[in-house]
């Protein structure tokens, strides 16, 4: 069993290697690919130095390919990888809206992964973090409408996003004016209500991804969802304020109890003790923190809550590896599938 990472030198690639080190996924060999810029560079996995190779034009001789080199690379190359017999777990948005391609968060709709045709899509990071809290509430109470405001870390834009936050903050602290390349405005000491391209309806693509992908993962096309996505000057972890209108009324205590036994969720909700979800506590953690659970003042029987989830982990690398683990646990990864 061979696993390949395409985009191994990026922010998510780095996390993929860390998560794979601790994963229960059984495999014999790890192959690392990136752009020609990084060809020949060495990365350490389980104490061994591995050489990064140029991503080839055609098939890759691996059983599972974890792709995290952007939508362009996936769109162009994934069909050849599938033709070569690999299962592709794709972190980009290239295939997420294709009805043939399952969009999977294992705790919510893991079995959808078993019906793949070669490609399984990993959701947008903001969506993956939100659905861990929202899906159990939907199952129990039926979510009619969901309103989300996000506080998204710079690593959502990859390693270069974190680099820009650090270098530009350094500039400001040394009395210089901050510039910007990755983000549309300087990010230090600022918040930017603009992530991804603006659409004809005035929402950004990031905001629409939350709506489209939440419906697909939860399997309810009727759910009404509105999102405002905002970039903030943190390194990692996306936080989200979520308001839910429900079919059947819920109490905060019941929701707290429900989420405390939901997979992938850690309830951190003790305002007296100043305990609530934050990037500071959620970063590096596999579970998504949920707290500030309270009765909505707008929707009778509805719920307001706050989530913070390390989007490089649950929103990307961890979720991708969990999909591979799920396939292996269900006997859906077979070496002989390979051409
Ligand atoms: P490289 O480091 O060689 O540029 P991030 O999301 O942190 O920006 O990382 C993007 C990842 O995708 C990096 O590993 C990057 O490799 C890789 N990448 C970018 N363009 C290509 C490409 N055309 N083919 C293969 N990998 C690519």
Shape: globular
What is the total domain count?
2
Bound molecules: adenosine-2'-5'-diphosphate
Regions with little confidence, pLDDT below 50 for 5+ residues:
none
What name does CATH use for the topology of the largest domain? Answer: Dihydrodipicolinate Reductase, domain 2
CATH superfamily of the largest domain: Dihydrodipicolinate Reductase, domain 2
Strand order of the main beta sheet, please?
A: 3-4-2-1-5-6-7
Radius of gyration over alpha carbons?
A: 20 Å
SS summary, helix count: 9
Oligomer: single chain
- Helicity level: 25-40%
Secondary structural class: alpha/beta
Total strand count, please? 13
Residue share in β-strands: 15-25%
Distance between the termini: 13 Å
Please tell me about this protein's structure.
The chain has 339 residues and is an alpha/beta fold. The chain has 2 domains: 2-123 and 316-337, NAD(P)-binding Rossmann-like Domain (Rossmann fold), CATH 3.40.50; 126-312, Dihydrodipicolinate Reductase, domain 2. The chain has helices spanning 11-22, 71-83, 106-109, 125-141, 159-173, 205-218, 252-260, 279-282, 313-329; strands at 2-6, 29-34, 42-45, 48-54, 64-67, 87-90, 119-121, 143-151, 224-228, 238-246, 265-267, 288-295, 303-309. Helix 4 (125-141) packs across helix 6 and helix 4 (125-141) crosses helix 9. The chain is globular, with a radius of gyration of 20 Å. The mean pLDDT is 97. Adenosine-2'-5'-diphosphate is lined by residues 7-13, 34-35, 37-38, 55, 69-70, 73, 158-160.
């Amino acid at each position: 069993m061979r696993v390949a990472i395409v985009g191994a030198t990026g922010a998510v690639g780095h996390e993929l290697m860390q998560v794979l080190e601790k994963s229960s996924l059984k495999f014999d060999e790890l192959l690392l690919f990136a752009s020609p810029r990084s060809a020949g560079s060495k990365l350490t996995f389980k104490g061994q130095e591995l050489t990064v190779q140029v991503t080839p034009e055609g098939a890759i001789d691996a059983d599972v390919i974890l792709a995290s080199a952007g939508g362009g690379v996936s769109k162009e190359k994934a069909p050849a990888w599938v033709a070569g017999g690999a299962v592709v777990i794709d972190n980009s948005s290239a295939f997420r809206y294709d009805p043939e391609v399952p969009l999977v968060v294992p705790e919510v709709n893991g079995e959808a992964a078993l019906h793949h045709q070669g490609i399984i899509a990993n959701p947008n990071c903001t969506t993956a973090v939100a659905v861990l809290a929202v899906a159990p509430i939907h199952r129990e109470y039926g979510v009619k409408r969901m309103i989300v405001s996000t506080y998204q870390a710079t690593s959502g834009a990859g390693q270069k996003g974190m680099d820009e936050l650090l270098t530009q903050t350094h500039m400001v602290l040394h009395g210089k004016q901050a510039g910007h390349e990755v983000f549309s405005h300087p990010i230090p000491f600022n918040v930017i209500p603009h992530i991804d391209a603006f659409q004809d309806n005035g929402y950004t693509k990031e905001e629409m991804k939350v709506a489209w992908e939440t419906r697909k993962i939860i399997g309810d096309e009727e759910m009404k969802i509105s999102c405002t996505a905002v970039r903030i000057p943190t390194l990692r972890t996306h936080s989200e304020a979520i308001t839910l209108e429900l079919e059947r009324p819920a109490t905060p205590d019941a929701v707290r109890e429900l989420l405390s036994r939901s997979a992938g969720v850690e309830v951190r909700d003790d305002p007296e003790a100043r305990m609530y979800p934050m990037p500071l506590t959620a970063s590096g953690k596999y579970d998504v923190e949920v707290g500030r659970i309270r009765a909505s003042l707008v929707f009778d029987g509805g719920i307001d809550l706050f989530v913070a989830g390390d989007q490089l982990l649950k929103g990307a690398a961890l979720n991708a590896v969990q999909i591979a683990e799920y396939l292996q646990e269900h006997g859906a990864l077979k070496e002989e599938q390979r051409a």
